[in-house]
Design a protein that fits this description.
With 266 residues, this protein is mainly alpha-helical. The chain has a domain of 172 residues: dinb family like domain (Four Helix Bundle (Hemerythrin (Met), subunit A), Up-down Bundle). A two-stranded antiparallel ribbon has the order 1-2. Strands 3-4 form a two-stranded antiparallel sheet. A hairpin with a 7-residue loop joins strand 3 and strand 4. Helix 2 packs parallel to helix 6 and helix 3 packs antiparallel against helix 6. The longest helix is centred in the C-terminal third of the chain and has 29 residues.
Length: 266
């Protein structure tokens, strides 16, 4: 095992590095950025968490003896009552969740159109640009609805964008640096959203209780995967990435407020 003692690794980059069961003692993580990483079974002892920002999926996260995950979940639902409807169990609840998402996204798209299109290609704090976010949602819908649910082996569009930590697959597009217009991406998104709407319109409880298998080359490639989970993944992606998009638009707005309203909505 590699050991580091009294080393200065300030500014180092670790990408696709396996740190399973690693030990950190008297290590300074000030200013560190951890992105797309799995911290399962991690134990922090004698740590100082000051001015720390965490955006993550939380399950059984115990801080000073308190499982904070349910507390945070309840607080987020209090702040955003629609959030509680993003874990639907029935066909009717899925259709309601999708209608909520469509309404929320319509407002976000309207807000985005008040920015110059060049700004919609800009990253805020190293995150995806607004247009990249939409491209990723197109990819997620293609993967989990068109491929997994509908059985299209290769539903991809050249502008689809996998997540940054994806391993990469032959035949699946992944051009992070492409700069399509907002309308180009929205055209693809419109078709994908219509597909989801059609699936949900005829959704039955029997389907929700069923499983799907896709063993063809590509991604996802899984056996006996819950049908319902495919739809829940898309619901969750749509919910979370809209929040990210709104957050990042706010950052861009503060960085260059003079650029706003360059393209009035009316």
């Amino acid at each position: 095992m590699t050991e580091f003692h009294d080393q200065d690794l300030s500014g180092a980059t670790f990408e696709r590095v396996n740190l399973t069961d690693a030990r950190f003692t008297r290590v300074d993580f000030s200013g560190a950025v951890i992105r797309g990483s799995l911290l399962e079974g991690v134990r922090l002892r004698g740590a100082e968490l000051i001015d720390v920002e965490i955006s993550a999926e939380l399950q059984n996260v115990v801080v000073n003896g308190v499982n904070i995950a349910p507390l945070i979940d309840a607080e987020l639902n209090r702040r955003m009552p629609e959030r509680a409807k993003m874990r639907p169990e029935s066909p009717e609840a899925f259709r309601e969740a999708w209608a909520i998402l469509e309404g929320l996204w319509a407002g976000t798209i309207e807000r985005a159109r008040t920015f110059p299109e060049e700004t919609l290609h800009q990253s805020a704090n190293g995150e995806w640009s607004f247009i990249q976010t939409l491209r990723h949602l197109n990819f997620a819908t293609a993967a989990w609805v068109e491929r997994m649910v509908l059985g299209n082996r290769s539903p991809w569009h050249p502008l689809d964008l996998p997540w940054d930590e994806a391993p990469g697959w032959e035949g699946i597009p992944w051009d992070r640096e492409a700069r399509p217009s907002l309308d180009e991406v929205l055209a693809v998104r419109g078709r994908r959203q219509a597909t989801v709407a059609r699936v949900l319109a005829s959704l039955t409880q029997e389907q929700l209780a069923s499983e799907v298998t896709r063993t063809e080359p590509g991604w996802p490639q899984v056996e006996t995967f819950p049908f319902k989970e495919c739809l829940l993944i898309v619901i969750n992606e749509e919910w979370e990435h809209r929040l990210y998009a709104e957050r990042d638009l706010t950052v861009l707005e503060k960085e260059a407020p003079e650029s706003r309203r360059a393209f009035p909505t009316s």
